Each structure stands twice: as structure tokens, then as C-alpha cells.
Amino acid sequence: MFRRYYHVWRVITLIVIACASLATTRPVAAREPTLCFPQTGQCISGRIRDYWEQNGGLAVFGLPITAEREERNRETGKTYLTQWFERNRFEIHPENQRPYDVLLGRLGDDRLQALGRDWQQLPRDVAKQTGCLWFKETQFNVCNQSDGSGAQAGFMNYWLTEQLQDPRLDAYGRSLGLLGLPISRPRMETNASGDTVLTQWFERARLEWHPANPPGFRILLGLLGTESRPPVAQPTSSLTTYTSKDGTWTVQYPADVLRPEDLGGGTIIFISRDRSVFAAVDSYLDQGNAYGNTGEGLRNRARDTIDRIYGRSPSETNVVQRPGGRWEVGLGFRTDKGSIGEAVYEQRGRQQGIYRVNGILFGYKSTASNADSIVTSLRTLRDSFTPASNPAQAMLGYFQLLNQERYGEAALLYGGDYKTLRGFNPAIGRNDHAALFEYACSGLLKCLTVRRIVGERTVSSTEWRFVVEFSNKDGSLFQLGPMEAVPEARTQFPYTVKLVGGRYAVMELPVYIP
User: pTM for this one?
Assistant: First the structure.
């Protein structure tokens, strides 16, 4: 049991040391607004993240195990925005001023009740014990388990040391706010991991004494959030593959829950029958690069798409700088009708001249009783997004290989006939395709790299038409003409790619200079 904890903390310690050494040689990057954990697939942001980091983080609260969602508090009967962690539950109370706008759940009390143990009926201590903390409110003592010093000497020192960061409270009040009052005597209990250890319950925590662990790891907090929170239902719907009309992407979605609708402008929405849950794929060729190459430009596209879906502008809850995977930027949002959601976007091909934008958005009612299951399904759909094998990449590769004088490889991506090339130099062997291209590119053809794709059209499942611009060797825009044979200057040129024998092939030669 300890070995697992020890290795985790050893890795964390090494990371902290490494970060500290880097800080002396280069400036520290700005903190990302959203922090995600691949271990659970959940993220924290805003006030919940602030509170988590300021009051103990991973060691005290553990990893997030749910997304934010509206939940009813069983004690007050009121509904609050809630997020569960391995060791506690956070509730957002906007009616309170900081730091009381985030309140912790009384999971120690909750868990004992769920186990059928009424702590108010448990045997009490009759008086304060020497060297211990006495809590007259509940009539329990909290004592150390060893003669050592520091937080790990025992439950008493831990309770006194671990505190909320609230300057308006005294030390006792800060400890009380984090762990709460003791609600049991210490006794031997078997935890969820199967370890039988000395255990004492508190209103908001369960402390466990592990004497065999090295110093620093002898007191562990029970995983009350994991134990108290009902298991998240996994999506049981079978998935159906949807392929876009132009064949540029596919995605998998639960057809018994969501149905596709075309919103136009490159956006396909998958929406529930009551229209409370949706996922959308926003994929289009940004011919004019209207949203720019910056992350903020892509987020503007996300904002515009969200506006189209909801018919109004929701408020943003956070900006995600680097969501991970293929995605470059993202944002979270909330509507005035109680829906929350996320959007992630990428335009990774722009450096190769492909300005196609891909985005995935989803939203759902935060009050839904099965919100966690819904989020799991929506993220499954998002992660299934797959761009199709791209004919544009074949065209870009064709011109790049010619520009790099790799003529034999370029010939493999050419699907047109060689009559014109043979006419340039009949002395070259008819089937020596590399030599034919080499001779043509030496002066008759402009074998340049593509600057950008400005137009794209799918003719059929095996044919695509493109309009492209080229770059000169100095990086400037290539222009053909004006000249006698080309009276009007041209900067854009049409090309066709076909699927021939299971491979993409460019059907035209580079630009000919008369």
C-alpha cells in the first residue's frame, strides 16, 4: 500500500526540484487557467482550482473525480455547483464572500451515515487526556501516535498543522475549517484498500495511521470522495460512425441518444431529442484565414459557433491554452439557462498551407442527474474525431518533393500522363520518370512549394479540386505574368487530386513558364 504512495510522492518531489532549478535560468510561464489530470480525465479551473491549490492540493484533497455540475446538498436542500475529489467535495456558494464562496462537504459525517454508523451514539471520552486536544463540542480527544515532532507525529499534530489559508481565522479556526471536529475515537478499521489501520473520523476527513511507512507518509487521508460518490455510469450506448459529406472527417456518436443535424457553415451538431445535450463538429477550410493563426482567433471561431448553436452569447468560465491531444486551444462556457460546456479547436496544418479548422464543442444541462455519464459520452465522441486521409497532404507532398529535388519520390504522387514531360526532352527514357521531372524542373516548370490552399472542393469520393498559391524561394508570393502568353497576372492555380489504385495522385504538372 505504502509503496504506491511513496513512488507517487517521490516523482512529485523530483518534479518540484527540477522546476526549481529551471526557475533560476528562465522566466516562469504564466499559469494555465485550467489544470487537467489524465489519471481521471477531469479538470479543475476558476475558484475551485484556486481553493484546491491554496489549501493542500493533491495531498489533502486528491484528484478530481467528476466534472463540475449542479448538485443538491442533502443538509440544506439547496442546489450548488459541485465538484468531487478523491477526498472531499467542493461546493460553490456565490452568495458568500471569499474565501467562503467555496465550502467543503462534511464527508466524514456523510460516510459514517452511509455505513449505518450514527457517530452521535458512539462512546465518548469523559474528559481531556493528557497531551491531547479535547473537543468539548463532540467530547472526543485527538492525540498523537508517536513521540516525534511535526505533522506526521500523529493525528493531533496533523490536525493542528493542516489548515485552510484564511487570514481572518486563528490557527484553531483554520484547522477546524479544513478537517472539522472529531466524530469518533481512534480505533482499528479496515479501509477501502484492505489495510487494517488505526483510524479516527472527523466531520470532513478520515485520518489513518500507517506506522510502517517512512516519516512523512505515516498519516494518510481516507478517500472519502471516492467512497461517498456513487460510481459514474459509463455510457452503454453502441456507437455509430458518422462520416462528413466531403469525406474529410469521421466521428463516433451514440445514435440512440443523439441525432445529427447540419447547421451549415461546416458545422454538424449531434443533439438529443429534448435538445438539452449536444456535441458539434466544426470543420471547414478557412479560405481567407478570417480567424487568424493565433489561439485567440480560433477561440473567436468557437465563440461564433457557440452563438449560432444557442442563439445567444453564453458567459465564458475559463480559457484553456493547451487542451492536449490534437487540440491547440479551448474554452469553457455557461449559459443563463443552466447549460455548461467546452469547446476545443485546432488549425495545425497552417504551416504547410492548409487552413482547415477543426473544432469540437459540447454542452449539457448542469442540473442533469446523470451529468457525469453525459460528460463521459461527450468526451468519448470528441476523442473519436478522426480527420480522413487527406488528399491535400498528397498534393503538398508532391510539390515539396519536387522543390527538394526528390524527383523519384515525387513521381510516385503524380497521376497524370508523361506526354508533356517527354516532349521537353525526347532523349530521356520513356519510363525514367525521375529524370523527366528533373529536366522539366530545371527551367521549364516552376517546382515551388505551396504557400497555401485557398480553395477546396470535393467532386466525388475519389476526386478533389484545389486552388493554391505558391511561394518563391525568397518567400514572396509567386506570380505568373503579365506577359505575352499570360496577359493578366495570376497568383492562384487549380489542381486536381484523385484516388488511383488506393493512393492519392496529383493529376497536373507544376506551373509551366511559356
Answer: 0.47
